[in-house]
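Lecture 7 notes: from sequence to structure.

We start with a single chain of 211 residues. Read the sequence below before looking at the structure.
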Amino acid sequence: MFLEPHFKGQRSGWIEVICGSMFSGKTEELIRRLKRAKIANQKVEIFKPKIDTRYDEAKVVSHDANFILSTPIEHSSRLLELTEGVDVIGIDEAQFFDEELPDNCQRLALRGTRIIVAGLDMDFRGKPFGPMPNLLAVAEYITKVHAICQHCGNLATHSYRLSNNPDTVVIGEKDAYEARCRTCYHMGNILDLRARPDRKEKEGAKERRLA
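Now the structure, written as tokens:
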């Protein structure tokens, strides 16, 4: 379990990142840390991307229905405007934010603010997701949490999409995704390509465009 670091004689800001697949408890851990900060009488503000309205427009809600009030924002630059005098900043679903999020988090940390960020480290293709890899590179503390594979029961590290939607950002829950271990994730993709040759062609065309 993550325990807050303590610095004697000076105020110091830092960045913590909680990452993992879907259903791994990222938001649950974020809420736990933020509630501890509130118990310590620290001034706390929580933010989430405006596009994420799965459970509530203004609350950060975990899959276990725990929640904490938050402020939805469209761009990470708003963090600099809305957090003057704040001790601890929580950010949920960081993968959906803009690429400037890591730089803005560093600016806030230099102010002496503790930043706690939660997000998916990989998208449904198993690729680094949005600003998360750069956040992981500059964070002082990283916690990788794991779900349970819904096929074999081993530790799950991947988010497997159940639909054929090729868009990177598709907001969904258990009706759209499964948590899978590395083996079950790749076996599922192989079976999908065999069953859907059109999907294989689309994936190949997209890779050629990106090359």
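The longest strand covers residues 14-20. Keep this in mind for problem set 3.
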